[in-house]
């Protein structure tokens, strides 16, 4: 399915993407119209560009399956054209490429329905494991699995953690340039042993 865009009036009576999507994923069984199962949201959250929900299908005999629904989200409250909200709905069974689903939602899910769902959950768990590591300390050297190429064309995989005023920053080992690595805490890296000292900021 493609993206669905709407104005605030189109979202009414809901004021936020979370409230709107919670409602979209909540409906009762309707056998008269051929819908034997309903759906309810057990837990949901919005993380940066995606809504994640642990959604449970159910019928007259009770729960059927609890699975993850992922909706990609664009939220631009000041959009000049008035279209402040857009979303694209997916399920874990289609192999979504967004992996910041929290453990509180993953823990509610039943066994995965296919390999796509299993791999998506594994990727989410791996990301959570990376994010739970202690933050690197000034003086330590981070080593990435492979070089990262920056906008100036320099490729580097070793970075020293340093202080710049009250902030913790990274310096490329090769030329000492200060750099920023997006999503550092969910990027694979190791601490190089045998490195001591802090480069002056």
List the helices and strands and how they pair.
Elements: E1 4-6, H1 8-11, H2 17-24, E2 38-47, E3 50-59, E4 62-75, E5 85-91, H3 103-106, H4 115-131, E6 141-149, E7 155-164, E8 167-172, E9 178-179, E10 190-192
Antiparallel strand pairs: 1-5, 2-3, 3-4, 4-5, 6-7, 6-10, 7-8, 8-9
Care to give the gist of this entry?
This protein has helices at 8-11, 17-24, 103-106, 115-131, and strands at 4-6, 38-47, 50-59, 62-75, 85-91, 141-149, 155-164, 167-172, 178-179, 190-192. By secondary structure, the protein is α+β, with helices and mostly antiparallel strands.
Search tags:
201 residues; alpha+beta; five-stranded antiparallel sheet; 16% helix; elongated
Largest sheet: 5 strands, antiparallel
Mean pLDDT: 89
- Multimeric status of the protein: single chain
Low-confidence stretches: 195-201
- Number of β-strand runs: 10
Rg on CA atoms, Å: 22 Å
Q: What's the helix count?
A: 4
Q: State the helical fraction.
A: 10-25%
Q: Which term fits the overall shape?
A: elongated
**End-to-end span in angstroms?**
50 Å
Beta-strand fraction estimate: 35-45%
Strand order of the largest sheet: 1-5-4-3-2
Structural class: alpha+beta
The run of helices and strands is: EHHEEEEHHEEEEE
């Amino acid at each position: 399915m493609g993206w669905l865009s709407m104005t605030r009036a189109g979202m009414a009576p809901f004021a936020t993407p979370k409230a709107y999507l919670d409602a979209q994923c909540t409906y009762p069984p309707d056998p008269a119209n051929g819908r034997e199962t309903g759906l309810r949201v057990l837990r949901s959250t919005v993380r940066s560009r995606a809504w994640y929900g642990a959604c449970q299908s159910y019928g007259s005999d009770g729960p059927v399956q609890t699975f993850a629904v992922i909706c990609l989200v664009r939220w631009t409250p000041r959009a000049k054209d008035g279209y402040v909200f857009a979303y694209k709905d997916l399920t874990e069974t289609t192999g979504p490429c967004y992996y910041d689903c929290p453990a509180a939602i993953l823990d509610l899910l039943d066994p995965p329905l296919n390999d796509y769902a299993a791999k998506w959950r594994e990727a989410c768990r791996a990301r959570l494991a990376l994010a739970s590591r202690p933050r690197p300390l000034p003086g330590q050297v981070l080593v990435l699995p492979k070089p990262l190429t920056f906008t100036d064309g320099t490729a580097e995989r070793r970075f020293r953690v340093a202080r710049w005023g009250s902030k913790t920053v990274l310096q490329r080992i090769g030329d000492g340039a200060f750099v920023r690595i997006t999503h550092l805490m969910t990027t694979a890296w190791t601490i190089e042993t045998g490195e001591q000292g802090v480069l002056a900021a």
